[in-house]
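Regression check, NAP case 253:
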Amino acid sequence: VVSIPTPHNVLVQGASRGIGLALVRALLADTGTDRIIATCRRPGRAGELGDLAVADHRLTIVALDAADESSIADAAGQVAGLVDRLDVVINVAGLLHDAQQQPEKRLADVGQRTLVRSFAVNAIAPILVARYFEGLLMRSSQPIFATLSARLGSISDNRLGGWYAYRASKAAQNMLLRTLSIEWKRHPRPIVCLAIHPGTVDTGLSRPFRRRDDTGRVFPAERAARQILAIVAAATPADNGRFVDWRGATIGW
Ligand SMILES: NC(=O)c1ccc[n+]([C@@H]2O[C@H](COP(=O)([O-])OP(=O)(O)OC[C@H]3O[C@@H](n4cnc5c(N)ncnc54)[C@H](OP(=O)(O)O)[C@@H]3O)[C@@H](O)[C@H]2O)c1
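Current build output:
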């Protein structure tokens, strides 16, 4: 059985807001947490995350742009100067919509720019984070790599259609994670990796698409963060390569 060693060092990639910020808060509330490295694109404008770092010396903010491989590599170099190992890496950053793109409703909305941007953040960044932080994870006695995926990336569960770039990039994220799990299983000290669907969570990502009657089915970010950390803490080698929801139930690829 793998459980997070105490004291543990955790990296949260994509912590400026939403679920990532809630994960940082939950980790700070956990006395077993030794160090938290939180990454965001612009630490100088980290807002709430910056305030948390001022208030608690266990938290350090490092710049990482998920859409830029050299930024991911630089961040890993910086983190190696801060901690001797990482016990848990949680890759959170994801892109559904922003000022430059909206989810596609129909084929006529599909375009190269949205597909490429979505793949960069949702599919390519997670595997590059795994690549550049692997060395620090391998120094842990019980390393865990979790990536936040989405049920919308399940091909077998796709009955509604739409949201081409988000669905396809999340499916690609899952395939890359699954492939990684097979390689990491063969390590002398295996790293357990898994893809987690957090449920529908009340963040900027989901807010424009919420229905009026869905209140009971949407988690506050704080609750989602606790559920994600419970799955990470309970992970065993048998969970390596799994795609699970917030309860730990398997989601079909
Ligand atoms: N909310 C939900 O209902 C839901 C459901 C299923 C899955 N998920 C998944 O859960 C994860 C977190 O979602 P969320 O709801 O917390 O989203 P969110 O509130 O929109 O936050 C997205 C995070 O990703 C970061 N990000 C986006 N592009 C980035 C880039 N190029 N480089 C670095 N960081 C970047 C954002 O940083 P900036 O502040 O710099 O933009 C922000 O911290 C995502 O992977 C999402 O797909 C969410």
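Comparison notes: The pocket of NAP is lined by residues 14, 16-20, 40-41, 65-67, 92-95, 121, 148, 150, 197-198, 200-201, 203-206 (CB under 6 Å). The radius of gyration is 17 Å. No diff flagged against the previous build.
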